[in-house]
Amino acid sequence: MARNSKAPTAQPLMDVSVPTMMRTLLPGGRMLGVDGSLWLVRKVPLEPVVDAKSIDERINTYTPLMAAYDELSAMTHTTSNRRALARKDYRQTQELLVNLKKLYNPETGHPIAGFLKESFPHQITEKRLLLLAVKLNGKLGGNGGFRHAIESFAETLVVGGTPLSDFDTDLARVDAALARCGLSVPSSQEIAIANSFWNQGHFPDTVDLPHEDHLHVFSDAKAVRMADAAGREDCHSWPVIPNHRTLTIATLEGFDFDFVSPSSAEANWATGLVEDGAVAISIRAGIEPAKVTRAELRRQRKRYLDDINERLKQNKMELSEQEEMVKVLEDVEAVYASRQGSPTLVDCSVLVAFDGEVEDISQAGPGSAANLRIMNFRQRQALAEMMLCSYIRANPNLHDMPTQNVAASGIQSLSTVGDKTGALIGFTERDRQPAYVSPTAASTADGLPLMLVAGGTGSGKTQALLWMGTQMNRIPGPRGGRSPQVIVDPKTDSDHSPTVLAAGGQVISLDDLQHSDGIFDPIRFAKSPDVGVELAASMLGAINPWGVDKGKYEVAIYTALRYGVANGAKCIGQALKISLGHGKAAQEMVQPILDLAEASPMFRACVGMSPESQALNIFDGITLIKVGNSHLDLPEPGAIEGAPLMQRVCLALVRMMVFGSAMALTGRGGVIHLDEAWVFLGAGKAEVERLGRLARSQGVLPILYTQRVSDALKAELTGYISRGFILPIEDRIEAEAACRLFNLEPTPERLGRIRAKANVGEGEQIAPNRNSMRALRDPRTNQVIRGAIGIYADLTGRAVPVEVVLPPTFLSMASTNPEDIRRRQEAAQAVLV
Questions:
Q1: Please, what's the largest Cα pairwise distance for the chain?
Q2: Integer angstrom CA distances of residue 564 from 65, 574, 579, 616
Q3: How far apart are CA 526 and CA 533, in angstroms?
Q4: CB contact set of 559 (below 8 Å; sequence gap of 6+)
Q5: I need a surface site. Which of 26, 287, 296, 715 has the fewest CB within 10 A?
């Protein structure tokens, strides 16, 4: 928004400048005004509106506020259907939206609050709060009977004002009504923030200096002295003054629409104002019952039509204008005829306070249908009207409008997503709210056990993996210690060792597994012998070292393994040798397994021969299991059945790494990160069902990272995935599959953004593409100007764009850029030298 460059003329200070209109905050969200009025304030729930996943979800967000107006309207008992006579009985209300920019500070109780605050010392977030304040009606004597009524009357004469007990009856009714609508009691801290929004929510008693079209607010005496010394008439010549801010307060003159559907984005006039720097929006109004509005419309209809016809006869109006005006009247009547009529906000005063000095208020809130005008020479009075409990009315623009104009304005919009605590995956793109992924939220809520991160090449998928793993490892586990993390990386020559080792983790490479006897042997890592035998028989059957004779041994291999384990075997090879020695297994069945174990290091990793060897040991840190320089020859998805023997061995190894890790993490609140998860997804529905059952029962979170989302749909795995993160995907088929997986409509706009390239233009005209979800860099300096965007679909069904924000210290040790890898290797070599 452009700012004013013209020096204003300072206006004389008013005789009295009140720092607040609230005299006392009482328990239960009650506020006592300086004029003796008593208000009940409740917090309106905030949910995504602009980022709502569907029209139905957007409408659901409007429901609490709409219901609250309906409830309050139903309490209004008027003696007449004429507005002029009934107006005195209307319930007085104030909505106050506060939106303040704050440094990111994790909520109290966050398990890694210190680490996150240290990682993001300069990150700005938005603190948003929407309150509905209702003026209570006093009844002489309250519920105390005749004697209490006399005492109440006497107290009023002696002290002044109305005794609080006189409000008890109305308080109970309003409290119960708003509770039914889903509104909650705000904390004293939240009310304090709303009662000092002009001072960033710190404290209300500030010094202010009004100029003709804006207002200066000073938080301490030094700031006042600096402004005085610089000359208070010309604020544009002031130096930078700490603890000083400028506000511009405007009034709502009207809208650029007549009547639009609440589901229309055009109805969301408040969201554009917040996006353009509005720090507060105050909406004061009386609530008129629908029956009064309908009666008023009927009385005015004939007069209105007579006036239109008279103007037409006098040639003061074209026929088209008449038809248009009649259509407006019909639309108004239709609004109040629907739903048995909606309440009306009468004498509605809307004031908007913007951060800074605004040059052209007509440009405020681009895309908003609200028409604003600055409150010239009334800035201080406008601020006083916006305060909670205020009795001052400074706004000359009052409106009568349906309650849906406010309820569907998007004033309750807050793009928030994710779990209450956990690893910080980023900040919501629109409102900069932290988005967390908890390693235990799904299992605690008995939800679906898997999470999927979808992203194409260069989307930032691997960095998201390492950043989440690094954070989650710092979260305390249910048994004490930390939440252990296992990263399975099946890509040849991929190496995240620097990041893992820098975080105090350990690295297991398939280069070394040649010397590891049965480290992923299921009999070793299974939680019980029966489970171990079942996994071992399934693995050997999938590998099939017998070729066409497989059918002969499906039952026999299971029986031989069970017999060997029952007789003390600790691994597959030992179990088969025991069965063979006791005559419980045939030589032609056992020998191919023993021969393959001697020939293939990868098969030997899954089939232990020595009872003295140890199973996979997962400690409290991060364990990276990587391929290293070995070649993991994996079959293509859909080609598993006809794959050659060694491809089947490699696939079995990957499965055992996954199941072995899951078993080792039992009850420890751990996470398994599966990179290139198409390898696992391609194994089919049965394998994911097995992992899902295991994850839920053991309290383990598997996170699948893949660019082949269509594999999950083909395997019918949508019933096992509870949440996910969609990063940029260039392939159209995979982008559509990612949307369908999380019940997102693959609209052209959504797909266009997911698939868009990071830059537009060519040569010297190249520029970052703001519509792209890919990380954006300055074409000249190569500096990151915005992180990658991912659509986070959480456990509650919300799906909101989130910017992945990574600390510089993490970026330097986790980057997969060849130049960054070279620098890390040189640094490591320098240390060795």
A1: 115
A2: 67, 7, 5, 21
A3: 9
A4: 579, 584, 585
A5: 26
Task: Please write down the long-range contacts of 10-16, taking CB distance under 8 Å and 24 or more positions apart.
Answer: 10/209, 10/210, 10/211, 10/232, 10/233, 11/210, 11/211, 11/212, 11/377, 13/209, 13/210, 14/380
The CA distances from residue 455 to 389, 488, 753, 828, in Å, are 51, 17, 13, 30
Q: Which of 454, 62, 456 is nearest to 271 (CA)?
A: 62
**Phi (first) and psi of residue 740, to 5 degrees:** -65, -35
Tokens of 462: 């691997």
Task: Note the pLDDT of residue 690.
Answer: 77
Neighbouring C-beta atoms of residue 84, cutoff 10 Å: 8
User: Whole-angstrom Cα distance, residue 536 to residue 282?
Assistant: 67
> Which DSSP string do the residues of 236-270 spell out, in sequence order?
GG----TTEEEEEEEEEEEES-SS--TTSGGG-HH
- Gyration radius (Cα) of the chain, Å: 34
Element (H, E) at 127: strand 124-135
* Rounded Cα gap, residues 423 and 619, in angstroms: 20
Question: From start to end of 394-470, where are the E strands?
Answer: 398-402, 423-428, 434-437, 450-454
Start-end of H helices in 416-549 = 441-444, 461-472, 497-502, 522-525, 529-543
In DSSP terms, which residues pair with 440 in a beta bridge? Answer: none
Identity of residue 223: A
Contact 65, 287 (CB under 8 A): no
| Residue 559 and residue 575 in contact, taking contact as beta carbons nearer than 8 Å | no
SS3 (DSSP) at 36:
coil
Q: Which residues in 294-307 are b (16+ Cβ under 10 Å) and which e?
A: bbbbeeeeeebeee
Contacts of 829 (CB under 8 A, 6+ apart): none
**Strand (E) positions, 442-516?**
450-454, 485-489, 506-509
Query: For residues 537 and 592, is the Cβ–Cβ distance under 8 A?
Result: no
Q: Is 585 helix (H, G, I), strand (E, B) or coil?
A: coil
Question: Which region, left, alpha or beta, applies to residue 520 given φ > 0 means left and ψ of -120 to 50 means alpha?
Answer: alpha
Q: What is the dihedral of CA 13, 15, 17, 21, to 10 degrees?
A: -140
| Residue 472 · residue 439 · CB < 8 Å | yes
Contacts of 831 (CB under 8 A, 6+ apart): none
* Helix 685-698 × helix 645-664 angle, to 10°: 20
Instruction: Give the per-residue pLDDT at 765.
Output: 84
C-alpha to C-alpha distances, 435 to 416, 421, 496, 674, 815, nearest whole angstrom: 7, 8, 25, 21, 22
Which is it for the CA torsion 163, 165, 170, 176, positive or negative? Answer: positive
Confidence (pLDDT) at 64 = 96
pLDDT for 350 equals 97
- Rounded mean pLDDT for each run of 10 residues along the chain, 833 residues in total: 39 51 93 94 96 90 95 86 80 97 93 95 96 88 51 44 83 96 96 96 92 95 93 93 96 81 83 93 94 76 72 71 67 63 90 94 85 95 96 94 92 96 96 94 75 92 93 89 90 84 85 75 90 93 92 94 96 96 96 93 90 81 86 71 86 86 86 84 70 81 91 78 94 95 93 94 87 92 92 95 92 70 62 43
Q: pTM of this prediction?
A: 0.86
Q: Which two tokens stand for residue 747?
A: 């609209």
Give the HSE-up count for residue 647: Cα atoms under 13 Å, Cβ half-sphere.
12
Amino acid at 691: L
Straight-line distance from the first to the last Cα atom of the chain, in angstroms, rounded to the nearest whole number: 56
| Rounded Cα gap, residues 256 and 405, in angstroms | 12
Question: Do the strands 776-777 and 278-288 form a parallel or antiparallel pair, or are they unpaired?
Answer: unpaired
- Residue 689 has a pLDDT of 76
Instruction: Please report the pLDDT score of residue 626 as a whole number.
Output: 86
Predicted confidence at residue 246, as pLDDT, reads 96
